[in-house]
Amino acid sequence: MPGPVVGLLFLLLLLLARDRFVALARGPLQQDGVENASRGLLAHLSLLFVPAGVGVVQKLDLVAEHGIAVAVVLAISVVVTLLVTVATFLVASRLMSRGRSAP
Amino acid sequence: MSANPFSLWVYLSQSPLLWLTVTLLVYATTDALSLVTHRHPLANPVLHSIWIIGAFLMLTGTSYTTYFGGAQFVHFLLGPATVALAVPLYENRKGGSRRSNPPARCLAALVVGSVTAVVSVVLLAEAVGLPRAVVLSLAPKSVTAGRRDGHQRIVARRSIADGGRGRPYRHHGRDHRHAIDEPDRHCGFPRARIRGRNRGAWHRHRSRVPG
Description:
A: mainly alpha; B: 10 helices
């Protein structure tokens, strides 16, 4: 498991623990300290992908050769994925509301 | 300043701070443009930052390694930003317990969406006959896309839930929802429309649920 994902879980657990145990609500864990810092970071999340994205200049030959095929594959895959995700969401919603209304 | 502008350039190009500055300036500019166009998908700041910086590197004959020497400070923040995603998760935890457990269907949509993303892109890429290395590099990209789809569901729900709770993200000046699904580098897909449709589904769903 990648480090940042472990960190995500730890932070989530810590925030949940803070709500349960008052003793933990200190330092940045009080008065939305962690929350505000995280929001600031996430508001500019897209900036953080720029350096990696610029790496494409190293692979321009590959882009010239396969760029169109890759773009088409990505476009179709995104459409398929979105449709399947939405369909799953709607089907699951329907199943759950049915399960609730007919107990 | 220096008598010879070239010597100034030689001096600046030795410092990683130049590339950090270039990255931030270009992003600030493209992001401002994106705001002006009301976040039009074609004005995606990441997309335009990448080609502008890329062109700048090629024009100045700078290697990507040199550029990354400065840009790594931005790249490094990806890790902390991933950890920071715990906060939206944490703030969403309560929305789940009321009204037919939305996270369960978010989870279902997320899992199915991720699997679909990987399988579809790999199958398509192989069908088109892309080289193995390219196919492999496409596969994990779609994992993040799937995660983003899941986020959209969560975020769409939260934007409604927040309306009632009075704790919108909007007070940070930037639309937080935009930040969440921004990692989308294949950019500008009809996100808004899907989100809108989904939101409609949620409303329809809510109106159907008794009580």
